[in-house]
Amino acid sequence: MQIGLQIPDFTRPEGAATLGPALGQLARTADDHGFDFIGVMDHFFQLASIGPADNDMLEAYTTLGFLAAHTSRAKLLTIVTGVHYRSAGLLAKTVTTLDVLSGGRAWLGIGAGWNEEESLGLGLGFPPVAERFEMLEETLQICLQMWRGDETPFEGRHYQLHRPLNVPQTLQRPHPPIMIGGGGERKTLRMVAKYADACNLFASPDLGHKLDVLKRHCDDVGRNYDDITKSVYYLFDTSAGPAKILDDLRRLAGMGFQIALGGVRDVWSLKPIEIIGRDVIPEAASL
User: Fold this and answer.
1) What dihedral angle (degrees, nearest 10) is formed by the CA atoms of 50, 83, 78, 140?
2) How confident is residue 240, by pLDDT bands cut at 50, 70 and 90?
3) Which residues pair with 262 in a beta bridge?
4) How far apart are CA 107 and CA 98, in angstroms?
5) End-to-end CA, the chain
């Protein structure tokens, strides 16, 4: 099993002036200690489950570019981009840029989005959920078209691209892996089966059921279920030692999950990163 770090909170007692050096050190430490992924949320306001909306929050793709310069091996992604935050062609170009400048380490993490407060707060618009799913499917189609070098005009309901030019192309071929986040059974998991290289699910009690639904969608669209990488969002807490984490990872691996990624408690102290790198990642590699 591969292990990934998500950094969801940029509020530190030292303030924003020290955030750049601290974030660079955190990324280097995770990269050096064997984390396979480093990701950030694609949000502009802090989530209520983490802190007040006006806590420090960095724009995701600028941050990933910064992380690319401070790492050399970990894959870089959002967990996950709200489809309505950026136009489809711009998103394809943005992920391409990240892939080129990181040496081929970008993933596209994407979903239908949900945060109305920040969407309206920043004037991004907040289409109804049915429209956001239509936008998601068109965005996936546009990204795949641009990444295969097809400049044919795209005429969709939500996006019209007269010349979807993408130069330079991504270093990863045929394209950066696509991870669709979310467990919606009628639409999200069907899009995983149809378009994605990986899914990302929350570690909820119905995980097994979600995988069964994904299997059915794969059967419906003629996709090999085993070709889809299964990723689970998992919160790492080293305060009780690594044994509990490893027990959880064994259970998740037994269900078929190949990646566990998520936040790490007390991450800015760096000590939990070192513990996971020393005591968890080597053991998890054999799960």
Assistant:
1) 150
2) confident
3) 5
4) 9
5) 5
Distance between CA 144 and CA 241 in Å, rounded? 43
Structure tokens at 256: 């078929």
Task: Give me the amino acid identity at 61.
Answer: Y
Tokens read off for 1: 């099993």
The whole-angstrom distance between residue 131's C-alpha and the CA centroid of its chain comes to 22
**Nearest 5°: CA angle at 281, between 280 and 287?**
90
The 10 Å Cβ neighbour count of residue 87 is 16
Matching residue, tokens 């691996």 = 253
d(CA 37, CA 262): 10
Q: What burial class does residue 190 get, using C-beta atoms within 10 Å of its C-beta: 0-12 exposed, 13-18 middle, 19+ buried?
A: buried
Six token digits for residue 248: 């959880």
pLDDT at residue number 88: 98
In the chain, the amino acid numbered 84 is: H
- CB under 8 Å, gap of 24 or more: what pairs does 212-216 form? 213/185, 213/189, 214/189
Element holding 261 (H helix, E strand): strand 259-262
Q: What is the pTM of this model?
A: 0.96
H and E: helices and strands count for the chain: 10, 11
Among 256, 82, 88, CA closest to 159: 88
Please name the residue that has the structure tokens 């394209």. Answer: 175
